[in-house]
Amino acid sequence: MGEALVDLVPQPDGSIRPQPGGGAWNTALTLGRLGVATSLAWPISRDAYGALLLAPLAAAGVETSLCPRSNRPTALARIDLNSGDATYRFDDENSAGRIFLPAQLPPLPTDCRALVIGGISLAAEPCGSTVEQFATDASRRGIPLIFDLNIRPQAIQDKTEYRARLDRLLTLSHLVKLSAEDAAWLAPDTAPDETAARILALGPRIVVLTRGAQGAMAMTRRHRLHAAAVPATVADSIGAGDSFNAAFLASLLHGDALDSPDSAALTAALTLATTAAAITVSRPGADPPWADEL
After folding, report:
1. Cis peptide before 68 (omega within 30 of 0)
2. Which of 90, 80, 110, 85 is closest to 11 using CA atoms?
3. In CATH, what number is assigned to the domain containing residue 251?
4. Does the residue 293 lie in any domain?
5. Phi-psi region at 256: left, alpha or beta (left = phi > 0; alpha = psi -120 to 50)
6. Cα dist. 239→134, 228, 245, 267, 276 in Å?
7. How far are the Cα atoms of 148, 175, 210, 240 from residue 179, in angstroms, in the given order?
8. Signal peptide span per the entry (predicted)?
9. Which of 86, 57, 131 is nearest to 241 (CA)?
10. What pLDDT sits at residue 86?
């Protein structure tokens, strides 16, 4: 559950290319392409951009029956690229996703194996409260909560309330993924791996820290494993963290190891995730790999 929006990606010729995206949308797309039975839950506009969001999900086998349709516009992310690194400016005031109310919440599927949340869907209202309510209810029912922080400072309305929401959800989470940039925002004067260790102490069973070209680390109370980044020629960084998160989760689910992974399961998940991220950054926009590419 989380944002589905359209990235407005600048092209070399000065034009702008609309590209479907959003943290949760990218994650759902990657999971579907990797053969994991996946549903997305987020309001989708009836405008032309809404159709642009739905078509790739359908091609990847992602279920969208949990997505209420809305007459409000699709949220937009205006992207600036600097040597392939993407920064975002969000235009989501009164959008389909921003005005996501508790009355629109779908029922939690009875066969749900995990719930993934994170990103800008938690940073604004009323959608932030709606997602938190759904995630809290799911966690209380024993559904593992996968929390990809994916912090976008430009989207945060109320920094104090946002931090409080993160703290509440971190204590409920089963697996937390954060980037070095997320860690720096949370604790500017603390090393990222120390911030990851502090999050682990709050209750999650697994914490994963990504560090771009420096690779990634997976932590549990018994493990601290590192993986090098897979070399790639970078087109841009759009969707890289989302594809990493999805591939890491897919590996654990395929191995039936989400509940209590051993070192072999964590190593396999890191390997798949770093490979998926390398493929994604090698292609323009959020275009994660299919299973046969891995």
Report:
1. no
2. 80
3. 3.40.1190.20
4. no
5. left
6. 24, 19, 10, 22, 10
7. 9, 14, 5, 11
8. none
9. 86
10. 73
Beta bridge partners of 9: 17
Report how many domains make up the chain.
1
* Count of beta carbons in the 10 Å neighbourhood of residue 173: 27
What residues in the chain have per-residue pLDDT under 70?
Answer: 83-84
Asked whether 262 and 191 are in contact (CB, 8 A), the reply is: no
In a domain, 82, yes or no: yes
Phi, psi of 289 (to 5 degrees): -75, 160
How far lies 200's CA from each of 141, 196, 218, 276, in Å? 21, 6, 11, 25
Q: Which long-range contacts (CB under 8 A, 24 or more apart) does 85-93 make?
A: 85/236, 85/237, 86/236, 86/237, 86/238, 87/154, 88/152, 88/154, 88/155, 89/154, 90/5, 90/120, 90/152, 90/154, 90/155, 92/5, 92/120, 92/124, 92/155
The Cα 223–Cα 243 span in angstroms is 23
Eight-state DSSP code of residue 109: P
55, part of any domain: yes
Write the CB contacts of 191 (distance below 8 Å, at least 6 apart in sequence). Answer: none
Structural domain of 171: 5-286
Q: Find where tokens 């946002």 sit.
A: 162
In a domain, 292, yes or no: no
Tokens of 125: 């209202």
Residue 220 contacts residue 196 (beta carbons within 8 Å): no
Task: Give how far the C-alpha of residue 148 lies from the chain's centroid of Cα atoms, to the nearest Å.
Answer: 5
Find the DSSP H helices in the chain: 23-33, 48-59, 127-140, 159-172, 180-186, 192-201, 240-254, 263-281
Q: Extract the tokens encoding 254.
A: 């395929």
Give the H or E element holding residue 85: strand 85-91
Cα 198 to Cα 285: distance, rounded to the nearest angstrom: 33
| 15: amino acid identity, one letter | S
